[in-house]
Amino acid sequence: MAAEELKTGPLEYRTQEGQMGIMGFWIFLGAEVVLFATLFATYAVLFGRTADAPLPSELFEPGIVLVMTFLLLTSSFTCGLAIHEMRRGSVKGLILWMVITLALGLGFLGFEIYEFVHYAHEGATIQSSAFWSAFFILAGTHGLHVTLGIGWAILLLIQIKQRGLTNVTSRKFFIISLYWHFLDVIWIFIFTSVYLIGMVI
Amino acid sequence: MHITDILVTGEPIIYGAMVSMALVGIALLFILTYFKKWKWLWSEWLTTVDHKKIGVMYILSALLMLFRGGVDAMMMRVQLAFPDLGFLNSQHYNEIFTTHGTIMIIFMAMPFLIGLMNIIVPLQIGARDFAFPYLNALSFWSFFFGMALFNISFVIGGSPDAGWTSYTPLSGAAMSPGPGQNFYLMGLQLSGIGTLATGINLMVTILKMRAPGMKLFHMPIFTWSTLVTCFIIVFAFPILTVALALLTIDRIFGAQFFTLTGEGLPMMWANLFWMWGHPEVYIVILPAFGIFSEVIATFAKKRLFGYNVMVWSMIVIALLSFLVWVHHFFTMGAGAFVNSVFSVSTMLIAVPTGVKIFNWLATLYKSKIEFTVPMLWSLAFIPSFILGGVTGVMLGMAAADYQFHNSYFLIAHFHYVLIAGTVFACFAGLVFWYPKMFGHKMNERLGKWAFWLFFFGFHVCFFPQYFLGLDGMPRRLFITNVAEWLPLNVISTVGAFGMGLGFIVFVYNVYYSFRYSARETTGDSWNGNGRTLEWATTTPVPYYNFATVPYVDEIDPYIRMKEEGKTTFEEDKVKPIHMPSYTGQPFIMMAFLGLASFGLVFEWMYVAVFGLIGAVFMMIRRSFDYDDGYYVPVEEIKRTEKKARGL
């Protein structure tokens, strides 16, 4: 159907195909909200059911989680800058800020993996109790999303090198930026309702 | 591992099924090879992104599953009518009621309705295809491989046997070891991907691709029901995704979500399952309401009474459907206050539903009803569904539910709403839109035979079950040699076979009509009574659907178009039409995911990882795929339209 093309406005919104892709992704994010809400609810229900495993307050430490939060929030900001550069028509700026975003995302992921391994050594694994199952699946699902996002963005970086800014490539970058900001929002909830509360109680 | 270790052995009935499946498989291979149809199968069907063809494939699969689930039902009924015959053993009985329920809901009702939506919704709103045709093909193949995975369970590895609700701890690793439950989890997970994708796809299609001028409140009511259903799908299916994933992780990776060790909470499964499960029953009933509304308005030859109210009641039903899930387990002991809240919210749903019933009756009031087959199904729906609805309100009263819970009263109730609602609608919709799909009608005489057999069979089968329930017969019971129950059970079984006979006549009618029905010459198949845009295009529908899309600013636009002599072919306005290219990628991607799921079922991690890598590789290929379709030239459109319209 994408016959007509607008001459003004952001590139990604100029074709009907682009508009539909972005709208579809917003609806998909709605489904993702439900998915994470279910995981949060599961976590809340299973909170305190640690059986013989260590308590979260014994393992959660503010330092590493704060670093992770800092990395991910900054990456959301640089991702915004990347889209800003894209809107200005600068492929170079887009690539630069996107690479920085991914580097920050990788840093986050590295700390998360370190953290998980550390907990496992302390006797808290996915198998040790209902609480730890819920914790690892909630935080792990978020981590898996970040991993997929990094892989996906690398594919898009190759495509922008090959094709430059078009209706299609700009749509793809705009959509992955939505995804990245969404993961940031989820992390804020994990940081507060999992780590901060877990440290106190 | 040797192949005989995973084949199900020692059951004569299953040996019979294996032999017949092998024979049908060989026959299919032979026919495809003998008539040199392999290329045709690949290039016309397996690679298609055309919403009409995908819809046909959905409906064919659903009919096949109706047969499979129906055979399961017959076997249960034989066992219950002749409990001393030793026809089934208890394990086999458990497996059969599990697969019957799961198949009928997940692999019959939903794909049937999604198939009809696939074909009809773009036609009703004047669109050329879905918003995302590639994704639509992906949805179908994920459903197809999920279905295949679930269905092979009874010859390889053993079927799930913990009921279609798969309650923990029974369905956990400790009490149900082996692949059976894994088939349930992976089959549903795989097809769930497709359902969610279809929900998003149809939502965007409806919101962004309507004919020029068509506002939301100009849309045909079936399209409205689809939009509301998609809303439920998008917000309910992720809950199922999580629930299935958590139980899978419990079973395969030893987590403790629903276990009795490690302080897991088995009751959380019931909550998660029904938080999806109750919206799910509205996913299969709202489109049915949409179909009945279309059929009733068409054959009462009147505009649907209270169109706006109909739409708003669907929206209210959709919202309420998320707030009633606890009524499935009042007896679990949530306490009087919680039960009361959910009791009230359950009964609230009866209000918008009642409004809809009265609107259908008001549409029929003082109209000249034409008793075609789709109309018969729709008229039969109203009183039958009311029986199911009223008993539903009885079940919704928490205190009384302690008596009804898990008895045949419940079985009778939900078969009355699901068969009289959803199944009648599937038949009504299929017969109603059949000429649009295949270019000829189904034979009316045979159709009426199928209808009356099925209709009487249905009531004879399920009405006695209310009384069996009140007499205390529990569901999922394998031995029923209580003398007082036997007569009603025999009557019920007779009814079940009546329904089976009706189904056979229906399927025979497909063949008979293909051979003998007159081919359609106009697009407006039902004596010129079509009201909405799907009847405005020619039959069979050209692959681009509409040569020119009309301007629409009212409900039932085709009526005025006919009065003013307008068509969907205004020769001077024809422009090249953009269409998506066919591709085999969705089929291959989902085949890999199917393989991964199969590996997970048997916990063969190498197979699972291999399948996942294959699927990811296909996704990467898709990301680099910049094929943006092709244009149908004006000349070809004009040639096609003139031929179809006899100009």
UniProtKB/TrEMBL annotation, chain A:
Gene Ontology terms, MF aspect: cytochrome-c oxidase activity; oxidoreductase activity
Major enzyme class: oxidoreductase
Main location: membrane
Reactions catalysed according to its record: 2 a quinol + O2 = 2 a quinone + 2 H2O
Source domain of life: Bacteria
Domain Heme-copper oxidase subunit III family profile: residue ranges: 23-199
Gene3D superfamilies xref list: Cytochrome c oxidase, subunit III, four-helix bundle
EC number: 1.10.3.-
Keywords, comma-separated and alphabetical: Cell membrane, Membrane, Oxidoreductase, Transmembrane, Transmembrane helix
Transmembrane parts of this sequence: 21-44, 64-83, 95-114, 134-158, 178-198
Subcellular location field: Cell membrane
GO-annotated biological processes: aerobic electron transport chain; ATP synthesis coupled electron transport
Record's GO cellular component terms: plasma membrane
Topology versus the membrane: Multi-pass membrane protein
Pfam families, alphabetized: COX3
Protein function: Catalyzes quinol oxidation with the concomitant reduction of oxygen to water.
Family membership: Belongs to the cytochrome c oxidase subunit 3 family.
Name of the protein: Quinol oxidase subunit 3
Gene it is expressed from: qoxC
UniProtKB/TrEMBL annotation, chain B:
Ranges annotated as spanning the membrane: 12-35, 56-76, 96-121, 133-156, 183-209, 221-249, 269-292, 304-326, 332-355, 376-400, 412-434, 446-468, 488-511, 587-620
Gene3D superfamilies: Cytochrome c oxidase-like, subunit I domain (1.20.210.10)
Pathway field: Energy metabolism; oxidative phosphorylation
UniProt remark on cofactor binding: Binds a copper B center. Heme A3.
Cofactor: Cu cation; ferriheme a
Keyword terms: Cell membrane, Copper, Electron transport, Heme, Hydrogen ion transport, Ion transport, Iron, Membrane, Metal-binding, Oxidoreductase, Respiratory chain, Translocase, Transmembrane, Transmembrane helix, Transport
Family (UniProt): Belongs to the heme-copper respiratory oxidase family.
Name assigned to this protein: Quinol oxidase subunit 1
Organism (species): Halobacillus aidingensis
